[in-house]
Design goal:
By secondary structure, the protein is an alpha/beta fold. It folds into two domains: about 170 residues, HUPs (Rossmann fold), CATH 3.40.50; about 90 residues, Pantoate-beta-alanine ligase, C-terminal domain (Pantoate--beta-alanine Ligase, Chain: A,domain 2), CATH 3.30.1300.10. The protein has ten helices and nine strands. The strands form two sheets. A six-stranded parallel β-sheet has the order 1-4-3-2-5-6, with helices on both faces. The longest helix is centred in the middle third of the chain and has 16 residues. The protein is globular and about 55 Å long. The N and C termini lie far apart (about 40 Å).
Length: about 280
């Protein structure tokens, strides 16, 4: 297993990317906050299908956490992450400090509308996507990558980043990858490690309820009633529900039936102290 290259500065990463591009090699970026699991490794594998060289960024981005959220306790497992990435042939890790990403005097943010302002995650985490978009915009321009690979688990984030890259002409193609799941249907997430044994056993209920809702919508059941029934089922199962909604799969706008276009079900719910998000296509 070859040792993995670690870039701690933008300058060192750009020097390598410039050399790869000069050799005619495409470059893909996989942005992460570390604590890598099989879902992240699948993103790397997908990136390798598109580009000769793959960089994985590991940066726990403070600007996307609200003051009450889990920035300080977010798991940091850098050595283990690098071992996993080296095992699958990742070319490099970009591991910047907060000071490298946000130097003294940093005063710029990305202002978002469209899929970032539809009353889903943005309703509960109003500053989150501004932080995500700002750091992704920086990573895209810092790396000068040709592709960026994102998982569909954070579906609204995927749509926000895709829209931003297109709107700002960043010259990078955002590639989506379907959500990876555990055998019982739970979407893979770094936050799953926070679940107690009891809550871990209950967590897949969310996916199963969503599957039932999707089937009802495909069968032309009345949309609002089907969604309300599923919301009630989640609450009855013991979760604190932030939202479960049927939205247009591309714009994330409101829909009233299948006639309004492709539908995506999006969910956020808490069990104990852990907040889980998920989504599926109808």
């Amino acid at each position: 297993m070859a040792a993995i290259t670690i870039f701690e500065t933008v300058a060192s990463m750009r020097q390598a990317v410039d050399a790869w591009h000069a050799a005619g090699e495409k470059v893909a970026l996989v942005p992460t906050m570390g604590a890598l699991h099989e879902g992240h490794i699948a993103l790397v594998t997908e990136a390798q299908h598109h580009a000769k060289r793959v960089i994985v960024s590991i940066f726990v981005n403070p600007t996307q956490f609200a003051p009450h959220e889990d920035f300080k306790k977010y798991p940091r497992t850098f050595d283990d992450d690098c071992a996993k990435l080296a095992a699958v042939g990742t070319d490099a890790v970009f591991f910047p400090s907060v000071e490298e990403m946000y130097p003294a005097g940093f005063a710029t943010r990305v202002l978002l509308l469209g899929p970032a302002a539809v009353g889903l995650e943005d309703r509960f985490r109003p500053t989150h996507f501004e932080g995500v978009a700002t750091v992704c915009c920086k990573l895209f321009t810092q790396s000068r990558a040709d592709y960026a690979v994102f998982g569909e688990k954070d579906y609204q984030q995927l749509k926000v980043v895709t829209r931003m890259a297109a709107d700002l002409d960043l010259g990078i193609k955002v590639v989506p990858l379907a959500t990876l799941r555990e055998a019982d249907g739970l979407a893979m997430s770094s936050r799953n490690r926070y679940l107690s044994a009891e809550h871990r056993a209950l967590a897949p209920t969310l996916h199963h309820i969503m599957q039932g809702l999707a089937a009802r919508i495909r069968n032309r059941d009345e949309l609002y009633k089907a969604v309300a029934d599923a919301q009630n089922a989640i609450i009855t199962a013991g979760f604190e529900l932030d939202y479960l909604e049927a939205r247009h799969a591309e714009t994330l706008g409101q829909v009233t039936s299948l006639a309004d276009g492709p539908i995506r079900l999006l969910l956020a719910a808490r069990i104990g102290s852990t907040r889980l998000i998920d989504n599926i296509a109808v």
